[in-house]
């Protein structure tokens, strides 16, 4: 990875969603602007806020997709990330730091 780039893999929950009544909403359905969660798999040398293994929140419309060895990834700039999930073990706060 070069410069401030972050390579992420989409979470499974980002592809399909369930409505309140249990109806499956496919990822291709447009329901306004919705951010997506992903797992960081690689970072460039100038990335300061995230590291490998972090769950990050980003706008799925501002992305470049790439396929490596049969797996789909998304390439982002660090500034395109909107939030990072806290590790589950901490147990305090909202679960996000922005």
From TrEMBL:
Membrane-crossing residue ranges in chain numbering: none
SMART domains for this protein: Cpn10
Domain of life: Bacteria
Gene3D superfamilies per the UniProt record, alphabetical: GroES chaperonin
Keywords: Chaperone
A Pfam cross-reference name: Cpn10
Gene Ontology MF, one: ATP binding
InterPro entries: Chaperonin_GroES, Chaperonin_GroES_sf, GroES-like_sf
Family statement drawn from the similarity comment of this UniProt entry: Belongs to the GroES chaperonin family.
Protein name, as recorded: Chaperonin
Organism of origin: Cellulomonas bogoriensis 69B4 = DSM 16987
């Amino acid at each position: 990875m070069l410069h401030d780039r972050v390579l992420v893999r989409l979470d499974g929950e980002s592809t399909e969603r369930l409505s309140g009544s249990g109806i499956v909403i496919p990822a291709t359905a447009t329901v306004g602007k919705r951010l997506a969660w992903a797992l960081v798999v690689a970072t460039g040398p100038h990335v300061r806020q995230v590291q490998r293994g972090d769950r990050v929140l980003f706008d799925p419309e501002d992305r470049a997709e790439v396929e490596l060895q049969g797996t789909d990834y998304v390439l982002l700039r660090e500034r395109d990330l909107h939030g990072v999930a806290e590790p589950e073990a901490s147990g305090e706060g909202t679960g996000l730091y922005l």
